[in-house]
């Protein structure tokens, strides 16, 4: 089965529909599937529930989908760098399910592993635990969290072979590997594409069995969320 598609639009063909749930990898602007997010934007689908650590920043990646109001709900751990995200939430125009970052990561991992729920101490005694089962283990209280699954996962990887075996680079690894396992369909944009067998098996982070479609995006922009420099010292 050929997993490689010529562009993002064709890679997403037949997968998108209104009111679906999408997982989107990345942390801030690091490792986001920006090319695939743009394909979702162009499709015009709406009523989306998006599972992502955050929604990037205004005008980039998922931020564009917020601008066009294609997203109705976010399941996230952090929203502070996106003004539109905050504005829509505070105005009651966007549903938001806040999840502690480690809990969000584990909910996604559990979904990919076929584990329906788990217990964690994080959030006990806070609004995070409201409406959820709380159980005591060894004298300590734990709150039950449900696993997360998605209709579609959009992932950014550094390198892939034509069978979909993936290698992530440094901090761009973040949420991408676990989201690749938790989507019913996983589409990956990659910076480098090689033939099957050209990646050392010990270097593979995500096996190709979890990947359905691949698109080469070698010219995808590498953005800097916060540019920090030191003052030039004049001789």
Describe this structure in words.
- The chain is globular.
- Strands 1, 2, 3, 4, 5, 9, 10, 11 and 12 form a nine-stranded mixed β-sheet that branches. A three-stranded antiparallel β-sheet has the order 6-8-7.
- Helix 5 packs across helix 6.
- The chain is built from six helices and twelve strands.
- It has a single domain (4-114, 148-216), classed as Glutaconate Coenzyme A-transferase.
- Strand 9 and strand 10 (166-167) form a beta hairpin.
- The chain has helices at 8-12, 34-43, 62-67, 83-90, 101-113, 176-182; strands at 4-5, 21-24, 48-51, 71-76, 95-98, 117-120, 134-137, 140-146, 150-161, 166-167, 183-194, 213-216.
- Helix content is 21%, strand content 28%.
- 40% of the residues are buried.
- With 235 residues, it is α/β, with parallel strands linked by helices.
- The termini are far apart.
- The mean pLDDT is 94.
SSE layout and pairing:
Layout: E1 4-5, H1 8-12, E2 21-24, H2 34-43, E3 48-51, H3 62-67, E4 71-76, H4 83-90, E5 95-98, H5 101-113, E6 117-120, E7 134-137, E8 140-146, E9 150-161, E10 166-167, H6 176-182, E11 183-194, E12 213-216
Parallel strand pairs: 1-12, 2-3, 2-9, 3-4, 4-5, 9-11, 11-12
Antiparallel strand pairs: 6-8, 7-8, 9-10
